Amino acid sequence: MTISAVLFDVDGVLLDSAGAHRRVWDAWSAARGLDPEKVWELTFGRRPEDTVRDVAVHLDPAAERRVLDRLLAQEMDDIQPVEGARELLESLSGSPWAIVTSGAREFVEARFAATGLALPAVQVYGSDVHQAKPAPDCFALAASRLGVPASECLVVEDAPAGIQAAVAAGCIAVGLTTTHTEEALGQARVCVASLADVRQLLTGYGFGARPLVR
Questions:
Q1: Are residues 212 and 188 in contact, defined by beta-carbon separation less than 8 angstroms?
Q2: Which of 12, 92, 160, 165 has the most crowded CB, counting CB atoms within 10 A?
Q3: What is the pLDDT of residues 144-158, one digit of tens each?
Q4: Is 137 a catalytic residue?
Q5: Catalytic hit among 9, 16, 50, 158
Q6: pLDDT 10s digits, 173-190
Q7: Contact 123, 98 (CB under 8 A)
Q8: Residue of 211, 168, 210, 209 lying closest to 188 (CA atoms)
Q9: Strands, DSSP E only, in 14-133?
Q10: Is 16 a catalytic residue?
Protein backbone atom coordinates (compact mmCIF):
# COMPACT_ATOMS: atom_id res chain seq x y z
CA MET A 1 0.00 0.00 0.00
CA THR A 2 1.43 3.36 -1.06
CA ILE A 3 0.78 6.46 1.04
CA SER A 4 1.71 9.69 -0.70
CA ALA A 5 -0.29 12.18 1.40
CA VAL A 6 -2.28 12.44 4.62
CA LEU A 7 -5.64 14.20 4.89
CA PHE A 8 -6.84 15.20 8.35
CA ASP A 9 -10.29 16.07 9.53
CA VAL A 10 -10.10 18.88 12.11
CA ASP A 11 -12.80 18.66 14.79
CA GLY A 12 -12.22 15.58 16.92
CA VAL A 13 -8.96 14.80 15.12
CA LEU A 14 -6.68 17.82 15.48
CA LEU A 15 -8.88 20.03 17.67
CA ASP A 16 -10.67 18.82 20.81
CA SER A 17 -13.88 20.69 20.11
CA ALA A 18 -16.65 18.24 21.00
CA GLY A 19 -17.50 19.93 24.30
CA ALA A 20 -17.73 23.37 22.71
CA HIS A 21 -19.83 22.12 19.82
CA ARG A 22 -22.12 20.22 22.17
CA ARG A 23 -22.84 23.38 24.16
CA VAL A 24 -23.52 25.29 20.95
CA TRP A 25 -25.90 22.70 19.54
CA ASP A 26 -27.66 22.19 22.89
CA ALA A 27 -28.27 25.93 23.22
CA TRP A 28 -29.46 26.18 19.63
CA SER A 29 -31.74 23.14 19.96
CA ALA A 30 -33.30 24.45 23.17
CA ALA A 31 -33.98 27.83 21.57
CA ARG A 32 -35.65 26.14 18.59
CA GLY A 33 -37.68 23.64 20.64
CA LEU A 34 -35.80 20.64 19.23
CA ASP A 35 -34.57 17.45 20.91
CA PRO A 36 -30.87 18.14 21.59
CA GLU A 37 -29.93 14.44 21.54
CA LYS A 38 -31.43 13.87 18.11
CA VAL A 39 -29.81 17.02 16.78
CA TRP A 40 -26.40 16.19 18.25
CA GLU A 41 -26.34 12.77 16.59
CA LEU A 42 -26.59 14.46 13.18
CA THR A 43 -23.81 17.01 13.64
CA PHE A 44 -20.61 14.97 13.45
CA GLY A 45 -18.49 15.53 10.36
CA ARG A 46 -21.17 17.61 8.68
CA ARG A 47 -21.70 21.25 7.80
CA PRO A 48 -23.99 22.98 10.31
CA GLU A 49 -26.39 24.07 7.58
CA ASP A 50 -26.76 20.46 6.42
CA THR A 51 -27.68 19.41 9.95
CA VAL A 52 -30.23 22.23 10.12
CA ARG A 53 -31.84 21.03 6.88
CA ASP A 54 -32.27 17.57 8.36
CA VAL A 55 -33.63 18.53 11.78
CA ALA A 56 -35.64 21.69 11.04
CA VAL A 57 -36.92 21.91 7.48
CA HIS A 58 -38.93 25.00 8.38
CA LEU A 59 -35.82 27.05 9.18
CA ASP A 60 -33.44 28.88 6.83
CA PRO A 61 -30.13 26.94 6.91
CA ALA A 62 -28.03 29.97 5.99
CA ALA A 63 -29.57 32.14 8.71
CA GLU A 64 -29.22 29.39 11.31
CA ARG A 65 -25.59 28.84 10.32
CA ARG A 66 -24.91 32.47 11.20
CA VAL A 67 -26.56 31.96 14.60
CA LEU A 68 -24.50 28.83 15.21
CA ASP A 69 -21.31 30.61 14.19
CA ARG A 70 -21.99 33.40 16.69
CA LEU A 71 -22.56 30.82 19.44
CA LEU A 72 -19.36 29.00 18.50
CA ALA A 73 -17.36 32.24 18.59
CA GLN A 74 -18.17 32.45 22.31
CA GLU A 75 -16.65 28.99 22.86
CA MET A 76 -13.44 29.39 20.91
CA ASP A 77 -11.08 29.75 23.88
CA ASP A 78 -12.13 26.31 25.14
CA ILE A 79 -11.09 24.57 21.91
CA GLN A 80 -7.58 23.17 22.24
CA PRO A 81 -5.46 20.72 20.21
CA VAL A 82 -6.05 17.01 20.61
CA GLU A 83 -3.18 15.40 22.52
CA GLY A 84 -0.29 14.73 20.17
CA ALA A 85 -1.58 16.97 17.37
CA ARG A 86 1.28 19.44 17.43
CA GLU A 87 3.94 16.72 17.49
CA LEU A 88 2.27 14.79 14.68
CA LEU A 89 1.98 17.80 12.39
CA GLU A 90 5.56 18.84 13.10
CA SER A 91 6.71 15.34 12.15
CA LEU A 92 5.09 15.82 8.73
CA SER A 93 7.12 18.90 7.87
CA GLY A 94 8.11 18.63 4.22
CA SER A 95 5.58 15.84 3.51
CA PRO A 96 2.30 16.33 1.60
CA TRP A 97 -0.68 16.72 3.90
CA ALA A 98 -3.93 18.67 4.06
CA ILE A 99 -6.88 19.42 6.30
CA VAL A 100 -10.35 18.52 5.07
CA THR A 101 -13.12 19.83 7.28
CA SER A 102 -16.80 20.69 7.19
CA GLY A 103 -16.00 23.68 9.39
CA ALA A 104 -15.45 27.32 8.46
CA ARG A 105 -12.08 28.71 7.35
CA GLU A 106 -12.08 31.67 9.74
CA PHE A 107 -12.66 29.51 12.81
CA VAL A 108 -10.08 26.90 11.89
CA GLU A 109 -7.43 29.47 11.00
CA ALA A 110 -8.07 31.35 14.24
CA ARG A 111 -7.78 28.26 16.45
CA PHE A 112 -4.70 26.92 14.67
CA ALA A 113 -3.00 30.30 15.06
CA ALA A 114 -4.02 30.64 18.71
CA THR A 115 -2.87 27.14 19.66
CA GLY A 116 0.29 27.02 17.57
CA LEU A 117 -0.77 24.31 15.17
CA ALA A 118 0.73 24.38 11.70
CA LEU A 119 -1.59 24.96 8.77
CA PRO A 120 -0.83 23.09 5.54
CA ALA A 121 -0.74 24.67 2.12
CA VAL A 122 -3.84 22.68 1.10
CA GLN A 123 -6.99 23.32 3.12
CA VAL A 124 -10.48 22.22 2.12
CA TYR A 125 -13.49 23.63 3.95
CA GLY A 126 -17.19 22.92 3.83
CA SER A 127 -17.75 26.00 1.70
CA ASP A 128 -15.34 24.73 -0.97
CA VAL A 129 -17.63 21.95 -2.20
CA HIS A 130 -21.22 21.73 -3.31
CA GLN A 131 -21.79 18.45 -1.49
CA ALA A 132 -20.01 18.06 1.85
CA LYS A 133 -19.37 14.91 3.89
CA PRO A 134 -20.57 12.15 3.64
CA ALA A 135 -20.16 12.91 -0.09
CA PRO A 136 -16.60 12.26 -1.36
CA ASP A 137 -16.12 15.67 -2.99
CA CYS A 138 -14.00 17.23 -0.24
CA PHE A 139 -11.42 14.45 -0.18
CA ALA A 140 -11.32 14.25 -3.96
CA LEU A 141 -10.66 18.00 -4.08
CA ALA A 142 -7.85 17.77 -1.51
CA ALA A 143 -6.18 14.92 -3.43
CA SER A 144 -6.46 16.92 -6.65
CA ARG A 145 -4.92 20.03 -5.07
CA LEU A 146 -2.05 17.93 -3.71
CA GLY A 147 -1.54 16.28 -7.08
CA VAL A 148 -1.84 12.83 -5.50
CA PRO A 149 -4.21 9.97 -6.44
CA ALA A 150 -7.00 9.60 -3.90
CA SER A 151 -6.06 5.94 -3.56
CA GLU A 152 -2.68 7.04 -2.13
CA CYS A 153 -4.20 9.42 0.44
CA LEU A 154 -4.55 8.25 4.02
CA VAL A 155 -7.48 9.98 5.73
CA VAL A 156 -7.73 10.39 9.51
CA GLU A 157 -11.35 10.83 10.59
CA ASP A 158 -13.34 10.54 13.81
CA ALA A 159 -16.89 10.61 12.43
CA PRO A 160 -18.90 8.07 10.44
CA ALA A 161 -19.80 10.70 7.83
CA GLY A 162 -16.12 11.46 7.30
CA ILE A 163 -15.15 7.81 7.02
CA GLN A 164 -17.96 7.28 4.53
CA ALA A 165 -16.74 10.23 2.47
CA ALA A 166 -13.15 9.01 2.51
CA VAL A 167 -14.08 5.50 1.42
CA ALA A 168 -16.33 6.86 -1.33
CA ALA A 169 -13.43 8.98 -2.59
CA GLY A 170 -11.23 5.88 -2.78
CA CYS A 171 -8.92 6.95 0.06
CA ILE A 172 -7.42 4.80 2.81
CA ALA A 173 -9.60 5.58 5.83
CA VAL A 174 -8.26 5.46 9.39
CA GLY A 175 -10.77 5.89 12.18
CA LEU A 176 -9.69 7.82 15.28
CA THR A 177 -11.87 6.80 18.22
CA THR A 178 -11.96 10.17 19.98
CA THR A 179 -15.71 10.71 19.50
CA HIS A 180 -17.05 7.40 18.15
CA THR A 181 -16.54 3.70 18.75
CA GLU A 182 -14.79 1.30 16.40
CA GLU A 183 -18.19 -0.16 15.56
CA ALA A 184 -19.49 3.24 14.47
CA LEU A 185 -16.39 3.72 12.30
CA GLY A 186 -16.71 0.24 10.83
CA GLN A 187 -16.00 1.31 7.25
CA ALA A 188 -12.47 2.39 8.19
CA ARG A 189 -9.50 0.28 7.09
CA VAL A 190 -8.26 0.39 10.68
CA CYS A 191 -9.15 2.22 13.90
CA VAL A 192 -6.70 3.75 16.37
CA ALA A 193 -7.14 5.37 19.77
CA SER A 194 -4.74 8.32 19.60
CA LEU A 195 -2.70 10.56 17.33
CA ALA A 196 0.41 8.84 18.66
CA ASP A 197 -1.01 5.68 17.10
CA VAL A 198 -1.56 7.56 13.83
CA ARG A 199 2.05 8.75 13.90
CA GLN A 200 3.28 5.23 14.53
CA LEU A 201 1.14 3.95 11.67
CA LEU A 202 2.58 6.54 9.29
CA THR A 203 6.10 5.81 10.44
CA GLY A 204 5.50 2.14 9.71
CA TYR A 205 4.63 3.05 6.13
CA GLY A 206 7.71 5.27 5.85
CA PHE A 207 5.66 8.46 5.67
CA GLY A 208 6.72 11.62 7.47
CA ALA A 209 9.97 13.46 7.96
CA ARG A 210 10.81 12.36 11.49
CA PRO A 211 10.50 9.01 13.24
CA LEU A 212 8.81 8.47 16.59
CA VAL A 213 10.89 9.48 19.58
CA ARG A 214 10.81 6.70 22.16
A1: no
A2: 165
A3: 999 999 999 999 999
A4: no
A5: 9
A6: 999 999 999 999 999 999
A7: yes
A8: 168
A9: 15-16, 80-81, 97-100, 122-124
A10: no
